[in-house]
Amino acid sequence: MSLISSMCAALSEIIRPSSAAVPSTEKAADLGVNTRCRQRFQGPGKPLLVVFGPGELDVNRPVYRSLLAPIDCNYVIFQSRSTDFFITDWSAIVAHIRELGVQWNPRRTVSWGFSMGGYASLRLGLNENPEIACSVAVTPHFRLGASVSRAQRLKQLPKNAQCPDLVDSLNQSTLQTKFRIYLPTHSIGDTIHVLDAQQVRSSRAEIHYLNVDHGIELKWKEDGLLRPAFESLTADGTWRHSEVCTASTADIATAISAVDYLYQSHGETRTLRKLHDEGVMEAEWHLRKAIAYLARRDWDGFRESASRSLKLGAAKRGFPKIFQDAFLDAGTPLALSATLLSWTLRYDLGATRKFLDTHRGMEIIRGHMEFSDLCYLLPFASDETAACAAQQIVLRCSDAQSADLGVFAIAAMSPNMDSAVERIAHRAAANNVHAAADAFFEKLASMRRPTTSDFEAWKRTRAAIGLSPPVSN
Fold this sequence. Notes:
The protein is of the alpha/beta class. Among the domains are: 24-249, Rossmann fold (3-Layer(aba) Sandwich); 258-303, no CATH class. The protein contains 24 helices and eight strands. Strands 1-2-4-3-5-6-7-8 form an eight-stranded mixed sheet, with helices on one face. Strand 5 (109-114), helix 4 and strand 6 (134-138) form a beta-alpha-beta unit. The protein is elongated and about 85 Å long. Residues 1-20 have low confidence and may be disordered. This is Alpha/beta hydrolase.
């Protein structure tokens, strides 16, 4: 070969792309009846990550693609159009993963799933083909047949579906798959799964309990831990997590004891033991306890748990119906119904108006309502109820009160009483009567430009009930 020919050949090798360099491709397709899958191929031999989404398909959400974008792996993400725990299309899902294994020849296949996807990830890890090196399941279900499980309450499992008991399957498995399972101890809906996990005896299953609610995945993402964990999972088949929220033995015991409250709140009579759960910050936890106490007519337990649930956000989508039913129930002590009415002033004025327009509401106003609460609710009552409340205020207020809250409450809706509205708004905010304070500040804003102090108090009271800050004009 001449020198010129050699140089040309060498140059062509530089210009020509390497045969091993395969451009990254991504595509999406429907699979079976309910499932949508999205997959990315970066080259043969790379690790294959199988991801099962946590809930119903949302076409506008990138799911995990943004997290996985810089990670050197091939992946396939499954989402379902229903909360069927991937049961409907399971055979098609497994067949598709096997096909990708043949086409892509991964050096390792790993799986990951959150919530209902956690059940699917565990189930995949229990398959002989494809062989899974490590199966990660975050807040998974183990037994879909439990009457209090989300699977049964959502009622989207196909009829006559085969739903394997994953506790038994894990204990009987002889596969070499590593299982990494993460369960929350501060989510009452998941306490049944914490209880199930106590029965897992497989040496291949490593179970971690965390002092958080159901959203472990979201917390890891917010803390910047999710992408590094995916990187280690695909690189060496090991899932690494933060130990910051690790639950103690006492925390786990509390979660297991709370299972009885979960069953009781769904109508199944159970023995309820005292829980030391002051550190649990999940509204649903305390709401379920309130429902359980209500069923047993334990009024002190109901009041305490209901109050905790509301402070933690149980009324963000409206005053809970169970509390509305308790208010109207003739068996509920009038003093407790009065408390429920006063809580609506803090969390839901729609419920305030609804309660006031009932015979029970009038009965409470005539003798069971705190003076300050009478003043706060006055502007939201109908004419008949307002007249009754105003009469009670005039009859019951002392000289000091008549010069303060009572008179201002009666005059609050007068268009030329902006100073009265301002004062009662700040008093309501200071007393944590959030919803009423928000309404008074809004009224004030329609009468005059609120001051900086007004806006700061208004912003705090709206934040307390999960509302966005007021807009400054």
